[in-house]
Amino acid sequence: MGDSTLMERPRIDDRTSVLVLTGAGVSAESGIPTFRGAGGLWESHSFTDLASPEGFDADPALVWRFYSSRREGAKGCRPNPGHLALVELERRLGDRFLLATQNVDGLHRDAGSERLVEIHGNLFTSRCSSCSRPPFEDRASHLHGAPPCERCGARLRPHIVWFGEMLDPSHLERIHRFLTEAARRGPLVFLAAGTSGAVYPAAGLVDEARQLGACTWLVNADPADNGHRFEHFTQGRTGEVLPDLLGP
Ligand code: BJW
Ligand code: ZN
């Protein structure tokens, strides 16, 4: 990388809209572990025990220990050049840009991204498992079981979308609306970065974008499960590739 003259780049002019989908790979160079592959969280942890409503019902203390250690691990991490390249692109495009992230670490917001949808939740937010108290910021570690809700006494849980749970319909609606309006307005680029393409509905966004005529790009360290559904694939680290791919 480094010599952008050798790299195929998406055409982004002053009419183009861009939807970006990011995954754990984008935060890997900031020191946040990914989920799949060597060294990934699911290699040493069972996702049915730790990231499902059934796992939380069976052992809430175990789930809170897992998310507490993830909170502690993420606290010292800072955005990397991949995050910053997306902030720069948003500054150029304004409302013709939207970033949907599967990451819960908050690094896109720390970097300065504003048109952002955290579709799988946020690591530093908790909510009640029972009442309608709104989700709230919570940076604490809970090592001795699930803390009780101040309003109703039920268990608090991480504000994370676990397997088998619905994503917030307003988030999906915002992405869908962006895509349809952008496709009507002019050229559309869909870029997925640092994601294995294994988890739905995120892994299906490429199909929706293609149906609307988007040019589709994937940047990932390894081939993704849904990689054959993209027109362009650049293999590499997002912290190195994205600044060259998206730069002016
Ligand atoms: C680098 C790099 C570097 C490394 N540079 N690259 C359709 C078909 C089949 C199943 C389903 C379906 N629709 C729904 C389902 C069920 C399920 C699902 O998708 N299962 C699949 C496993 C098959 N989906 C759900 O349950 C979702 N809910 C839902 O759809 O509700 C309705 C429904 C329910 C049930 C049935 C049907 C419908 C919810 C999914 C929630 C996912 N939650 C998690 C965990 C919680 C978050 C947390 O604790 O942090 O979210 S799972 C985990 O995977 C996490 C991630 O956001 C998500 C995606 O992972 P990601 O980001 O792609 O990371 P990795 O690790 O997989 O990949 C990283 C990549 O980066 C690798 O490829 C590396 O090579 C690369 N890389 N370093 C560039 N420096
Ligand atoms: Zn409550």
Say what the CATH topology of the largest domain is: Rossmann fold
Count of helical regions: 10
Question: Helix-strand pattern, N to C?
Answer: EHHHHHHEHEEEEHEHEEH
Per CATH, the superfamily of the largest domain is: TPP-binding domain
How many separate structural domains? 2
Helix/strand/pairing class, anyone? alpha/beta
The total of beta strands comes to 9
Shape: globular
The largest sheet is: 6 strands, parallel
Q: Mean pLDDT, nearest integer? A: 95
Can you describe this structure?
The protein has 2 domains: 17-32 and 79-120 and 167-246, Rossmann fold, CATH 3.40.50; 41-76 and 129-160, 2-Layer Sandwich (SIR2/SIRT2 'Small Domain'), CATH 3.30.1600. 35% of the residues lie in helices and 18% in strands. It contains 10 helices and 9 strands. The strands form 2 sheets. The chain has a 6-stranded parallel sheet, with helices on both faces. α6 (81-93) packs parallel to α10 (238-246). The longest helix has 17 residues, at 169-185. The protein binds ligand BJW and zinc ion.
Structure characteristics:
SIR2/SIRT2 'Small Domain'; binds ligand BJW; 9 strands; binds zinc ion; six-stranded parallel beta sheet; Rossmann fold; three-stranded antiparallel beta sheet
Detail the topology: elements first, then pairings:
Blueprint: E1 17-22, H1 24-28, H2 41-44, H3 47-50, H4 53-58, H5 60-75, H6 81-93, E2 97-101, H7 107-111, E3 116-118, E4 121-128, E5 136-137, E6 156-160, H8 169-185, E7 188-193, H9 205-211, E8 215-220, E9 232-235, H10 238-246
Parallel strand pairs: 1-2, 1-7, 2-3, 7-8, 8-9
Antiparallel strand pairs: 4-5, 4-6
Helix pairs in contact: 6-10
The site of ligand BJW has 35 residues, from helix 1.
